[in-house]
Design a protein that fits this description.
Length: 235
């Protein structure tokens, strides 16, 4: 695989169903060289824990100034085009991105390579196969671990180094179809609809929403967004 997009996401947690993307980072590689870069902070609709803030170094002020998820997804899809993807534990990021894309009616079907799986097969002597361990093995300094672009770049560097170290293992470096099926969205429950209506009335939010057409996830995200920005209803 000579041409690809290495990408990484920072998220509010581990579940694609309930957590959200807060940063997208990607680097485009053509014939082993960088030909493009993409990075953005996403404004989340749910509270971000202190653990994630401390882990990533993405401040709440940076998150407040972030772009909407739809804009970030659209820009990333345009950036990645029809190229295969590369990631360290790539299915984690692929699931989040595919679900985010699907929420805006965009397809995201990709072939790709997982550097974690490659390292497990080829670098058996290492104590673990974490990205930081692979970087140390190849004497590469990741300038900002747990930031999306820097981790994406580090993943590309590690991948290129593994290809050089194991030139006869061509098959393992070839992209395979990534398999993940997004569950069909269920309509918002009557309880969600009623609570959202009451919440909007309580805070005098004049936004025009077609609540009856919302999915459970959309309604839940909107409720979380209102509570985060306006607070709960007081009795």
């Amino acid at each position: 695989m000579k041409d690809y997009v290495a990408f990484d996401l920072e998220t509010t947690g581990l579940s694609p169903d309930s957590d959200q993307i807060i940063e997208i980072g990607a680097v485009k590689i053509r014939d082993g060289k960088i030909s493009g870069k993409y990075n953005c902070i996403i404004h989340p609709e749910i509270e971000v824990s202190d653990f994630i803030i401390n882990l990533t170094g993405i401040s709440r002020d940076m998150l407040r100034k972030g772009i909407p998820l739809k804009e970030g997804v659209e820009e990333f899809l345009e950036f990645s085009g029809d190229l295969p993807v590369l990631g360290h534990n790539v299915m984690f990021d692929y699931k989040f991105m595919k679900m985010a894309a699907a929420s805006f009616k965009y397809p995201f079907e990709k072939t790709g390579v997982d550097t974690l799986k490659v390292a497990r097969k080829l670098l058996t002597g290492l104590e673990n196969k974490k990205l930081e361990t692979l970087c140390a093995h190849y004497h590469y300094v990741n300038q900002a671990a747990h930031r999306a672009y820097d981790d994406a770049l580090a993943t590309a560097v590690v991948f290129e180094q593994m290809k050089k170290e194991f030139p006869t293992e061509e098959e393992i470096f070839q992209p395979q179809q990534l398999q993940f099926k997004v569950k069909k969205e269920r309509p918002a429950t009557p309880k969600q609809k009623k609570y959202l209506e009451n919440l909007m009335k309580y805070h005098a939010i004049g936004e025009c929403l077609d609540i009856d057409q919302m999915t459970q996830r959309e309604a839940s995200k909107k409720i979380d967004h209102i509570i985060l920005n306006y607070g709960v209803m007081k009795k």
